[in-house]
Amino acid sequence: MLRKKHVENEVERTMELLGEDAPLKADAFFFTRLQARIREEEAAHHFLVPSLWQRWRPMVLAALVGVNIITAALWLVSGSTNSAREQGLNALAEDYALVSDIGDWLYESLGE
Amino acid sequence: MNDAQVFYDEAHIVSDHSPLDFKTVVEAHQDRVLNICFKFLRSREDAEDTAQEVFMEVYRSLDGFRGDAQLSTWIHRVAVTKSLDAIRRKKRKKRMGSVRQLIGFDDSFIEPESPLNLRPDKLLEESERKMFLNKAMDKLPENQHIALTLCQIEGFTYQETADIMGTSLSSVESLIFRGKKGLKRHLTQSYEEILD
Fold first, then answer.
1. Do B55 and B132 reside in the same domain of the chain?
2. Mind listing the pLDDT tens digit for each residue in A55-96?
3. Last residue of some domain: B110, B135, B162?
C-alpha cells in the first residue's frame, strides 16, 4: 500500500515537471552564424552544379552515342528479321501457287 | 515586438524577399524555434544547429510561401519536422554505433547507466525525475509526443498545436489525453521497477 502510494506520489511530482523548464534565448550571434551558413551553402551549390556537369558531361555524351548505336543496331536486326520472314512467306506462297507479291499482281492486272 | 508588428513584417516578407526582411523574421521567431527544437532534442547544441537548419529552409522557401497559412505556424511546423529528422538521424547513428561495436569495428567503451533505486522513505531528485520523464516521453507514439511537447511543454494553445500539426482540435485533445495517460503508465512502470 505504502509502495503504491509512493509510486503515485512520484508520478504526480514528475508530471508536474512538464513545462517547468526555463525558456532558452538565442544568443546575439545567431543571425550572424546563420548568414555565414547560408553563404557557405550557396557558394557550395554554385561550385557544385557546374563542376558536376563538367565531370559528367563526357559520360552523358558517350551514353547518348551508345544509345543511338544500340537503337540503330536493333533497327537493322529487326529489319533483316522482317526480310527473312518475307522470304519465308514468298516461298510458302510459291509452294502453294498463291500470289506472292501483291505489287506484281496489281501491275500485271493493270497492264492487262 | 507586438503581434501587429509581426503580422506587418510577415506580409512584407512575402511580398518582398530581401535580406533585411529575412532578418526580421529570424529575430521574431528564433527564440521560439530554438525552444521547440530544444524540447525535442534536449541538447542546446543540437537545438541551435537544428534551429539554423529551420531558418535555412525558411530562407530557401520564403518565395514559395503562398500565405495560405500563417508564417509563424509554417515556421513552427518546419521546426517540428526538422527536430524529428534530427532525432531519427541520432537514433540511426546510435544503432550504427552499436552494430559497429558488435562486429568489432568500434571498441569505444559505453558506460552503463548507473542503477537508480527508489526507496519508500526517500524522494527522487528533480534531475532524476526529469530523466524518467524524458524516457517516458520517448516511449510515446510520435503524434502524442509532438502534441504534448507543443501544448504542455512549449505552451501553445490547442488550436495553435492543431494548426502546426495540420490536424483538428479534437484530434489534439485526444492526443494529449492519451499522451498523458501513456506517460503516467510508463512512469508508474519505471518507478515500480526501481522500487526496492
1. no
2. 788 888 999 999 999 999 888 877 666 667 778 888 888 888
3. B110
pLDDT for the residue numbered A79:
65
Q: Is B52 in contact with B79 (CB distance < 8 Å)?
A: no
Query: Is B35 in the same domain as B13?
Result: yes
Q: What is the domain-level CATH number for residue B146? A: 1.10.10.10
Nine-digit cell at B100? 559497429
Residue A3 contacts B where some CB pair is shorter than 8 Å: yes
Q: Which of B133, B161, B190 is the best substitution to test chain A (most A C-beta atoms within 10 A)? A: B133
Any chain A CB within 8 A of the CB of B128? Answer: no
- Kindly list the distances between the CA atom of residue A16 and the CA atoms of A10, A12, A13, B129, in Å, as whole numbers in the listed order: 10, 6, 5, 10
pLDDT at B55: 95
What DSSP designation does B50 have? H
Domain span including residue B176:
111-196
Judgement on whether residues B124 and B106 belong to the same structural domain of the protein: no
A-chain CB neighbours of B26 within 8 Å are 30-31, 34
Reading the block at residue B172, the C-alpha cell is 489534439
User: Is residue B50 located within the same domain as residue B130?
Assistant: no
What's the total number of domains in chain B?
2
User: Is A39's Cβ below 8 Å from some Cβ in B?
Assistant: no
Cβ–Cβ gap B130/A19 under 8 Å: no
Please give the ipTM for the structure prediction. 0.71
Given B60, B87, B110, which residue is the final one in a domain? B110
Q: What is the pLDDT of residues B86-123, one digit of tens each?
A: 999 988 888 877 777 666 665 554 444 545 566 656 66
What's the rounded Cα separation, in Å, for the pair B131 and B134?
A: 5
Nearest to B133 among A2, A8, A14 (CB): A14
The 10s digit of each residue's pLDDT in B142-151 is: 999 999 999 9
